[in-house]
Structures are given as structure tokens and as C-alpha cells.
Amino acid sequence: MTAHSLSVHRLSAGYGDRTILQGLDLDILPGRITAIVGANACGKSTLLRSMARLLAPQQGQVLLDGKAVHRMPPRQVARIMGLLPQSPLAPEGIAVADLVGRGRHPHHGILSRWSQADDQAVADAMEATRTLDLAHCAVDELSGGQRQRVWIAMALAQQTDLLLLDEPTTFLDISHQIEVLDLLTDLNQRRGTTVVMVLHDLNLAARYADHLVAMAGGALHAQGAPDEVLTEDTVRAVFGLSSRIVPDPTSGRPMMLPIGRHRMA
Amino acid sequence: MTASLIARGRRRRARRRHAVIGGACALLLAGFALTLMLGQSFVAPQTVLRVLAGQDVPGASFTVGQLRLPRAVVAILAGLSFGLGGAAFQIMLRNPLASPDIIGISRGASVAAVLAIVVLDLDGPMVSVMAVIAGLAVAIAIHGLASRGGVAGTRLILVGIGVSAMLDSVIAWTLSRAPSWDLAEAMRWLTGSVNGAHLSQALPLLASLAVFGGLLVSRSRDLETLRLGDDTAAALGTDVAATRVAVIVAAVGLIAVATAITGPIAFVAFLSGPIAARILGPNGSVLIPAALVGAALVLVGDYAGQFLLPARFPVGVVTGALGAPYLIYLIVRMNRTGGSL
């Protein structure tokens, strides 16, 4: 699989007159898993939305293979880079296989017909997410965990080398959070898909990411391997929280234990 | 083998879709034939065919050729336009209340048509052109009034309802000032009617269906992706802003041209999409089925208004009586679910 490069160059972005990101620079490592973490309203979703072309930059650029992503034809971008937004909507009663098939949209023009390759892409995506046995169920009847796997299947059917996800584990219970993150890791290891995701949970981010990006106040605070980035100083600077960092006994990655005012030994 | 499982489900959905569209076409054709034969007097099918073939049949040529045929043709074409335009807005804004006849766009076209006919003494294509321009102007105005850092669907609908009420009073005022207005004419501009339809009126409707309907259908795949949310649509490679503009222009064009000819036939644009969605189920785009449902509503509603009710009513009264309860139902449901539909 050819590695596409995605980078952010002196990016300022925001909504209306409000600027959230200020001159931000970031290179996404091809073929790796990058997790973006930070407090609420630090600009992590704004960064992801800018990279995914959903938000036009006020200044600076997002470069996909060296070209400004906001000036590329939308379909062309969508064949290289997929995105799972925070709260996608499922049309009433739509069947799982039908929804996953919507991921083929960028591969079709006005007149092109559905082909065997499309069916195969949908089947592969559903196999990878273990949703094949749900193929004919209605999406609105599924549990939260199943539904999230179906949405990931839709993004996989798009067959992109880059996959961006905005808080893919929010609203899922812990077993489903692990399931989703394992699935993304499988995808990264088997197909070499570059994964970039915004995550709420620092410890899960440190465990699953190759590269951790910590943001504060619309700027990058730190980036690098999890054991370099996840330090007591970073947690204090980014979240305003005292903590202890200990090695996670199951993965060896750093694990953050918050320190509050009560119940401390 | 897994791909064939996917293919099977896809083909089943396609079959259902074709069955629904085919069935609706057949019913519409049957309705068309029946309205040509039935009425105050019965005209035999052979006679209807002879009239359609252009032969002169004493009596039947007038009833069928001059009265029933133009009426049925205009009803079907206007219904197709209302159904398509209404469903396009509902899909794009993901809300059945966001129909052009609820949010003031039909009223805008009505106002322009009334002013053009009553005050400026225009007729023909000029009326349609003015109606389209006014419809677009209202669409832009509602959009401007409702957008405050992004357009929220509910705000747009509420602003639209207000604008619609204002435009209603402009129509009433214009009609009251008109030198020679009669009740039938007033009813046309208040509820819509195909009384006194003429075959020449079919031309602008056909042209609008070809141009605007074609534009809409060519965008229907992109429009379908908008149902997944604007962000998901963009992620799938849909140019969301361009699709919006194309859909608004096309839908306003369809609604405005039809409104300029028949008046705003109440609630057809509003009802067609949801009825079609109920019949079709989750089997693809609702655009074409909605157009067929719209045509059936106007054709059958007009027939019912003429012959099935104790007095003669214009078609808009019949469709209005059907639409109002559904509107109430939607609003009650919106209250219960806290704003989302």
C-alpha cells in the first residue's frame, strides 16, 4: 500500500471570527496510529475537521501528498482519506449492508454502475469489522457498539489509506471501546492504514497510539512516542491536573493516575 | 461468497424499489385513464382513444379533449413538480417540516405570480420567470435570516413559517385590491387549483421538469449522502455547498413554475416525500417515488374535489384537508422527541 503524506502547515482555523488554532504545524506519520489528546475546547476536533477538509483554514494549509487539501476535488480526497465524524446519522430503517455501501460513494460518478468490486469492498469491510452477520439488520436496531463497528465498516469500504476518526469510542462502554481500538490496530497492522484519531481517554490513547499529540489552548503542547509525551508535567499543562505516571502492567506503556483532593493514601 | 451475500441484499432492495416505482406508474396511468373516462358523464375508452388520436367526436371532443385532458395533464405535471421539489428540500434539510410550502417558498412564488397577473397584467412564461425569481429570493432571505453561525434546521423552519404568513397577507391584500377578482381566481392563489387548465400550460411545466428535475436527479446520489449528516457527506467526497446550491435552485424552480400555473396546491410538496418514504421503505432515494406520489395526490385530489364530494372544491382544499392532520401529527411528535424529527 502506498503511503500518503498528510501534514499541517502554519494552520489557523476556527469558526466565524473565533480563531481556535493558531499557526499549528504537524506531520502525520504514514502507516502509524496517531492519537490527539487534550482538554475540552483545546482545538483537537477543530484540527481533525481541518485535516478532513470539513473546515476551511483561515491561514496556512493542510497538505495531502504535498497538495493543499482544500483545493483538491472532494472525490479525489475521499478516495485517499476517510473520516468518521463524531455523530453520523443513519437514515431510518437503512440496512447495515446498504449503509456500508454508502462508503463506495467517492468511487462512483453520476453514471457509473455498481460493480462486483464494490460488493467485494463492502464484504471485506464488513468481514474486518465482524458485521457480516448483521448485513440485513436495520442500523437503528443495533446496540451502540455494533453501530460504531458498522460506521467504521462504512469508512473501510471507502478503501482509503488514511483514516481519521473523531472520538470513535465516545458513548461506548469499556469493552466496546477496546473492541473498536483493537479493530483499528488490526487495520493498521494488516493494511498499513494510517490512523489519526481524537481520543478522550489518555490511558487508552497511550496504549494504542504510536504517536501521541497533546494539545492545549489551540496549539501543540507536545508530540512523540507515548512514554515521552505522557508525563506528569504534560498532564498538568494540558489538563491542569496533578497525576502520577506508572507503567501499565499489561502493556508497558505509561498509565496516568489522577490525583484529586480526596481519597489519597 | 460474502460478496454475493452483499449482492443479494442489494438486488433485493433494487427489486423492491423497481416494484414500487413501476406500481406507482401503473396506478398513475390508470388514474389518468379513469379521469378521462369518468366525470359528469361517462365516456367509453374507445371514444377517449379516438379523441386522443385527434379525431373529432361530437360531444366527447369537448369534454375529454378540452376539459378533462388538459386538467389531468396539468394536474400530473404540477404534482410531479411539487413532489420532487418538496422531497428534495426534506431530504437536504433532513426534516419533513422543511418543505417549500411550509417554509414560505411556495408563497413567495405565489405572491410574484399574483402581482404579475393582477397588477402587471402579464401572462405566460413571464409569470413563471417572476415566480422562480421570487421563490429563490425567499429561499435566500430565509437562509439569511435563519443563519447565525451555521443554519440550524429548526430555526430555518420557524423563520420560514413566519415569512409564509407574511406573504399570505400580501396575496390577500393584492387580491382585495384587484379590479376584477373572482372567487375561483382567489382560490387558485390561496389554496391552488387546476380549474380551467389549458394544454399550453403543460409546456412550461414540462420544460421545468426537464431542466430542474434533470438537475435534481443528476444530483440525487450526492443528495442521498447528505442524509448521513453534512460531515459524513463531505467525508464521502460530496461537495456539500455545491450540492446544496444545485438542489435549492432546482427545487425552487420546480415549485415556482408549478405554483405560477396552479397556485400553491396545499401540502402536496409537504406530503409526497413522507408518503413515498413510507411506501418505499429504506430502499434508496425517495425522489422519484415522491414525484409519482405528488402526481397521484393532485390527480386524485382534483377528481375527488370535482365529483366525489357534496360540493365542488378546488384540489388544494382536498389536499389541504389531508395535509393539515399530518402537520399536526408531526408537530406533536416533534414536541415529544424534543425537537428532532
Automatic annotation (TrEMBL), chain A:
Membrane topology: Peripheral membrane protein
Places the protein is found: Cell membrane
CDD domains in the record: ABC_Iron-Siderophores_B12_Hemin (cd03214)
GO cellular component, one term: plasma membrane
SUPFAM superfamilies hit by this protein: P-loop containing nucleoside triphosphate hydrolases
Record flagged with keyword Translocase: no
Protein family: Belongs to the ABC transporter superfamily.
Keyword Cell membrane: yes
GO molecular function: ATP binding; ATP hydrolysis activity
Protein name according to UniProt: ABC transporter ATP-binding protein
Automatic annotation (TrEMBL), chain B:
Molecular function, one GO term: transmembrane transporter activity
Biological-process GO terms, alphabetical: siderophore-iron import into cell
Pfam family, one: FecCD
CDD domains given in the database record: TM_ABC_iron-siderophores_like
Topology class, membrane: Multi-pass membrane protein
Main location: membrane
Localization: Cell membrane
GO CC annotation terms, alphabetical: plasma membrane
SUPFAM superfamilies found in the cross-reference section: ABC transporter involved in vitamin B12 uptake, BtuC (SSF81345)
Family per record: Belongs to the binding-protein-dependent transport system permease family. FecCD subfamily.
Name recorded for this polypeptide: Iron ABC transporter permease
Taxonomic source organism: Paracoccus sediminis
